[in-house]
Design goal:
With 198 residues, the chain is α/β, with parallel strands linked by helices. The protein is built from four helices and eight strands, in the order ββαβαβββββαα.
Length: 198
């Protein structure tokens, strides 16, 4: 399962992919028309050495995940501290790193996330957090306009035309075209005319 959250014109893309990787396969095989994704996060259920140095192997699905992230212009975020994200209730099983965050490539201010293993309480997954700066921005809510088919618009156009004509006649001058006038033609004109006639 996955869902989208619209947040200040950017998208938070939250994913849960089961052990059979149904969501990841869907994203790979479907042309998802999403733009302006800022963060993709979730439980990807993939064990891989790329994000867990204690795990010795690489997964085929990590390549698929990186292709999906690349198509959304995202890259893998590094945690501020390398700790597991999923904790096993069975002491014989090892703890895992399967919860990940991917960030927009040019978002340099969002470069790391934090894993809070002490916040999980009775849960088996640790929360991941990242700070997102939201800058104050003035949004224009009023504008000037003219009503459709307004007679005022016609008057403005006529005023513009008459002013343009007045300025033209004021600053332009009358010249007589004679055989001594400056020749605008050059070698390129003659060459192109010759080519055209052929």
């Amino acid at each position: 399962m996955y869902f989208f959250l619209q947040l200040w014109f950017s998208l938070l893309f939250n994913i849960y992919s089961d052990l059979s990787q149904m969501t990841l396969k869907y994203l790979k095989n479907t042309e998802v028309n999403i733009s302006n994704v800022l963060i993709m996060s979730g439980d990807f259920n993939i064990r891989d050495n790329s994000w867990n140095p204690n795990f010795l192997y690489y997964s085929f699905y990590s390549n698929v995940l990186f292709k999906v992230a690349d198509s959304l212009h995202l890259e893998l975020s590094k945690p501020t501290e390398q700790v597991p994200t999923r904790y096993s209730n069975n002491h014989q099983d090892s703890n895992l790193v399967i919860n990940l965050i991917f960030l927009r490539l040019e978002s340099l201010e969002h470069d790391n996330h934090t894993i809070y293993s002490n916040w999980r309480l009775t849960l088996d997954h640790a929360p991941l957090t990242i700070d997102i700066s939201i800058f104050e921005k003035h949004i224009q809510t009023r504008k000037r306009t003219l009503a459709k088919n307004s007679k005022v618009l016609e008057q403005i156009v006529q005023l513009f035309v008459s002013n343009t004509e007045r300025i033209w006649y004021k600053y332009s001058k009358v010249v007589n075209i004679t055989k001594h006038s400056k020749n605008w033609g050059n070698g390129n004109c003659h060459r192109d005319l010759k080519t055209y006639k052929q």
